[in-house]
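User: Could you walk me through two proteins back to back? I'd like the raw sequence and the structure tokens for each, with a short line separating them so I can tell where one ends and the next begins.

Assistant: Of course. Protein one, sequence then structure:
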Amino acid sequence: MKKLFALISALTVILALCACAGNARENDLSKYDGAWTNGADILILSSEKQSYILDRRGRVGSGSFYLTNGKAGIYFNSSIYTLSLGDDGLSLTQSGQSYVTERIGASVFVPTDASETPVFTFEDMAGEWENEYGERLEIDPEDGSFVFASQQGVTEGTAGDEKQGRGPFFAAEGRYMYVIMSADLSGFSLRCGEEDEKVIRGHFTRK
């Protein structure tokens, strides 16, 4: 009888260890590390930094990458996207805030050899910028504001980065503009609207 109890106890310990190992593998963010693409966007995940970088056709943003309810997820545009790995690649499933207009599509991401996308932070944009039309943009990250001067007049508004994957933005008169950095990070253009449907004229470089 004692041998039977000892055997049962040993089996219980083994099963518990196997369950813990399974949970550890399930909760291991590092298995998602690296660069992924769905053919249009590039998603770079880092378990060490618990953050991600998302490059959407030149608009680069960053956000949080973490465990939520025991599942890996990222926070993008006021929504949580849970991550799952399958035979075909990495899938992202949106939960909550279904009314938002910009989403990460349901397409599957596959590994890519893309090198880490450099991130031009909002703080890096402090100072004065000018485009080829002589229009000037002055940015104050500490105050979270900007001033845009052109022949049509002066526009003031708010600016910042919500760290929700969409990158730095400028907002005025109910309109949002997002930053599209040049490949060498020497300047930028602006896109208007959450779906990037319109590019504001001009390329801004430091004045």
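----
Protein two, same layout:
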Amino acid sequence: MVPLDRFTVVLDACTIFPMLVRDVLLTLASHGFFSPKWSQKIKEEWIRNLTLRIREHDPDRGVTVQIQRIADSMALAFPDAEIITPILEIGMLEPVDPKDRHVVMTAIAARADAIITFNLSDFTAAHLRRHLGLEVIHPDDLVMDLVDLNEKRAVVAFRELRERKKHPPWDSNELIQRLRKSRLIQTSLWLASDDVSKLV
């Protein structure tokens, strides 16, 4: 088992642009559960996707400054997260969906243990595990693995996340419902359990 503070993961763009999923993962990272990594291309992709999502709901809303603040706060919190080493594609990546190969190349450059993504089928997980020793993990599964490793620490992280929500404030039920809508189903069920919900 890799020690928590040395467990390195690449966050696919699809896990960064949804607000709550990003919040959950980066809060856990800030509590020392893992070291997050991404590339300039991953950053550009999540910024583009978040911009499109916001404008779908509010076409007139100016989002550039708001999104740049998010990117800047991520860079400040995790100054070593962005991988800037030139990345070369290798033939071994052929089974991976072409649009996602850059994520695998980032993981190779970062010497990461895993890629965190909702798009599991795009990464041919068995192939990457066998040939590169890379795991491909759904964010919900990652969170539950971390809970299994240190539940008390995870509870503290989720309580801190909830307490940051001020406008309007969230109670534990609000957090649970939003996690469910964000496709973190197992995480929401864990938080909804009687012995955990009262602590968060």
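Residues 25 and 143 are 8 Å apart (CA to CA).

Let me know if you want the two compared in more detail.
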